[in-house]
Every structure is written in structure tokens, then in C-alpha cells.
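Students often ask why inverse folding is considered easier than folding. One informal answer: many sequences map to the same fold, so there is more than one right answer. In these notes we will look at a single instance of the problem. The structure comes first.
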């Protein structure tokens, strides 16, 4: 997974998770890697972390997207869609070439 794709995945899921372990399991990465990414996103000002004051488990945090984080999420989503469209078009051309050449096999 590209760094941008991983960042986008974390930004997309950050507001719905309650722990880094849950996020790591959902995305298929180690807790350490998720922790590293979340801390980098916090440093960049894309998300902020709030500890659940009422939670019995003090390891639970709520991750909130900031305005800067929302803008970054939009930018990364647009890049992702453009990349996938280009891949689709390339595959479509390749498929058409195979179809056109199938009589020559």
C-alpha cells in the first residue's frame, strides 16, 4: 500500500475507531506502524486525539479530523481516484488489445 493510500485509510477510519489495535486489525498493519502514522498525522495537524475521560480503559482515544485533515483527506481521495481511473483505462486498453488479437493466437 502506498504511503498516501495508508494515510488516506487512517484518515478515513480515524473517527470511527476506539483504539489503535482495532485500527491496526482493520487495516492489516502492526499497532506500532499505526501508532507512528497517527502521531505523524497529529504532528501535521490533520487529527487530534482526545482521551475518553469517562472510559475505564484509559488507552481509548477519540481521533478527530481537523479542518486541515479534512482538506488533506479530500486531496488524497482525489489523487487516489485519479490513479485508479488511470489504472482502469490502462487495463481497458490492454483488454481491448487482447480481444482484438485473439484471432491471431
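Output (designed amino acids):
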Amino acid at each position: 500500500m502506498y504511503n498516501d493510500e495508508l494515510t488516506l485509510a487512517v484518515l478515513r477510519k480515524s473517527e470511527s475507531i476506539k483504539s489503535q489495535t482495532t485500527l491496526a486489525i482493520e487495516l492489516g498493519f502492526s499497532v506500532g506502524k499505526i501508532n507512528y502514522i497517527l502521531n505523524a498525522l497529529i504532528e501535521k495537524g490533520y487529527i487530534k486525539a482526545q482521551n475518553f475521560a469517562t472510559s475505564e480503559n484509559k488507552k481509548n482515544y477519540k481521533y478527530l479530523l481537523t479542518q486541515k485533515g479534512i482538506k488533506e483527506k479530500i486531496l488524497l481521495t482525489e489523487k487516489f481516484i485519479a490513479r485508479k481511473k488511470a489504472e482502469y483505462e490502462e487495463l481497458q486498453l490492454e483488454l481491448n488489445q487482447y480481444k482484438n488479437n485473439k484471432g491471431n493466437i
